[in-house]
Structure formats: structure tokens, C-alpha cells
Amino acid sequence: MGFSVTACPKIVHRSVTGVRSHLASLVRNLPSTLHENPLMSATQPTEDRPASRYETIRNTLRDAILGGQTVPGLVLVEGPLAELFGTSRVPVRQALNLLHEEGLIRRFDGRGFLIDPEGTTETPLRVPLTRKLLGIEPQEDLIDYRPLGERIYDHLAQAVIRFMVFGHYRIDEQSAAEELNVSRNVVREALMRLRDKGLVEKEPYSHWLAGPLTAQAVKHDYELRMLLEPDALRQGVDQMPRSDLEAMLSRIVKAQEAGRLVQRADIEQLEQDLHVTCIAGVSNTRMAAVIRQCQIPMNVGRVLHEALQSSNDEAMLMEHRLIFEALLYGTVESACSCLRDHLSKARERTLQRLKVLSVLPEPDAPSYLERLA
């Protein structure tokens, strides 16, 4: 049996009108973060959130123009810039529009924009765009192409490491998602990875917590490292090619020659060489996990360097050098003994650095970190 329903035209009209009105109301009441497209915002990136591609391009060009590294009158065109930055034209177009609004570039009778911050340039200079013309280092990475999850993970890890030495913090997932302009799931996945590394903790139905890194925790971590890392080195070094060990020793020597001018990134690489790469071949996965969690105090040196813009690494460099020279020209056992001695001395240095940090002013925390104690 079939049924037919004939609707009154007035009722249908009122229903459609009501639906439209309801949808309009829903759209008006959507959270502001859904209305705001990060690619259309002119907000400057801060230390509290990663820069988007258009912001990176805008800031790179802006720094080059204001720093006098570009030639006045140079013509900027979307296509060549997109090729130079390895991206599509969309973020380049957005970056150029922002620079135009700021008055650093202007339109002219031709294609593209003219670099003219002083407003005095008349003759367009059309030449192939190169890194040198824009004042960009030859090997500098212009755009971060890592997946979003990796970038958010690194950002949160750096924030946690930076602040855990100052106290105990609660991490608000929703606030982090809003500040970093990502979904809450992306933040949660990053925090779960940080928990696996021992940087944060969370009980069921409770908040994410980070810190504090106390002197007692530092002592306990180094005690475990002194027990485990020499054996891990003994197991892992057999799988290391001699050429890799020679390259690691060479990096140490270069850092020593650089003296106070050594870059923090180079120090971080040396720590990675010895305490991560050389023991990566350990077969006991539980041992490897414990070692990773106990290496958190290594970050104290990085935080102190950021606070003081300097660090004293001469002793560490000499200790690393002795370990690698033993691996290459001595015995593995002597290298393990040197590593144990290095960890003992590193423990004392870390405790001293914690004391220094305790009297330094605490930096401003991002909104998603709430100080508990």
C-alpha cells in the first residue's frame, strides 16, 4: 500500500525559512577558532606557537628588507619565490600582501611587487631571485616540511623541557589546541608521546602534568645512567662503523677549536652522538626506555644556555673526546670506564646548573601551561 503526502506550501516555506535561520544562528555561534583561517591571519608567530608557511616567508623577506640585505627596486614575483621556498603560490601571495600592507613593497606598472621601503625607488630591477639576493644562508632550511604532528610534538617538548626546571605545571589540552591552532587530538597524541619519554605524566581522568625537575630526581636519574649506559655502550658500539666514530670524534675536536664560539646546536649533536646514537644498538628495549627517561636532566644545560646566552662546555667536550679516543684507539672497557666517569661529573654540573636556574627569573609561560607549585 502506498501513501502520498501533500504539504501545504505555506508550511513548507515556513519550515525552510526556519531551517535557514537556525543554520545562520549556528554559524554565527561557531567558536572563533573555526572562523579564523590561520593562513589568512596577520598575527606574528611567537615562541608559543609554530609559524605557518606564509608567516615564515613573510618574516624571511621582511628581515632581509629591513636588514638591508636586499637590493632596492628588486622585483618580487610569486612564481620564482614559490620555487625558491619550495612551496605553492598561495602562501607566497599571502606573504607579499602582508608586506605590501606594511609598506615594505609596492605595486608598480608591471607584474609582481617592488622592494621599496623608503618609497624612493623608480626603476624596477628584474633579475633571477636567488638566496644571495634575499640575504638567505645557502644551507638554511626555509620551510619546515615535517608533518603537523611532528612539529606540534617538538614544540610541546621544547616548552615542557624549558619550564619543568622552574616548577610543577598543568598542561591544558584545549588551551594548547587553541593556541597552536590545531585539533585537540593532535595535541593529545603529542602529549602521549611525551609521556612515553617521561617528560609528562597523566593519571586516568586527570590532567597532564610536567615537572618539577628536582635535585633528588637528577641524582636518581644519573645513578641509573651510570649503571646502564656503560653496558649499553658496550653492546651498541659493536654495530657502529669506525667511520661514524671517527666523524663523531672530529665533531668534538671542531667544537673544542671553536671555544666559546661553539654553537648550541653543535653541543646538542655531540650529546646525541654519545648518549643516543652510540647506544642505539642495545638489544634490551626496556633498558633503552629507562635510559631515555633518565636522560631528561641533560636538558638543563640547554635551558641554562637559553637563559644566559652562554655556557661552559669545555669539561664535557674533553670527557667526550676521551671516550671516543678510547673507542677508536683503546679498548671498549676503557671507554665504558670513561663514560661512567663522565656521567658522574655531569651529575655534579647539572646540580650546579639547577642552583643557578633557581635564582633566575622564570620566563613567561604559554597560556596552556598553568603553574601549580
Secondary-structure element order, as H and E? Answer: HHHEHHEEHEHHEHHHHHHHE
What ranges have pLDDT less than 50 throughout 5 or more consecutive residues? Answer: 1-48
- According to DSSP, the number of beta strands is 6
Q: What is the mean predicted local confidence, pLDDT?
A: 82
Q: How many domains would you count in the coordinates?
A: 3
Largest sheet: 3 strands, antiparallel
What is the CATH homologous superfamily assignment of the largest domain? Winged helix-like DNA-binding domain superfamily/Winged helix DNA-binding domain
Alpha plus pi helix count: 15
CATH topology of the largest domain, by name, is Arc Repressor Mutant, subunit A
Radius of gyration: 28 Å
What is the first-to-last residue Cα distance?
73 Å
Structural class: mainly alpha
Helical content stands at 55-70%
Q: What CATH first level of the largest domain would be assigned?
A: Mainly Alpha
If you had to describe this structure to a student in words, what would you say it looks like?
- GO terms for molecular function: DNA binding; DNA-binding transcription factor activity.
- This is GntR-family regulatory protein.
- This protein has 373 residues and is mainly alpha-helical.
- The protein folds into three domains: 1-145, Arc Repressor Mutant, subunit A; 148-212, Orthogonal Bundle (Arc Repressor Mutant, subunit A); 215-358, GntR ligand-binding domain-like (Four Helix Bundle (Hemerythrin (Met), subunit A), Up-down Bundle).
- The chain is 57% helix and 5% strand.
- Helix 6 packs across helix 8 (184-196), helix 7 (173-180) crosses helix 8 and helix 10 packs antiparallel against helix 11 (264-277).
- The longest helix has 27 residues, at 332-358.
- The radius of gyration is 28 Å and the shape is globular.
- The chain starts with 8 loop residues before the first helix and ends with a strand.
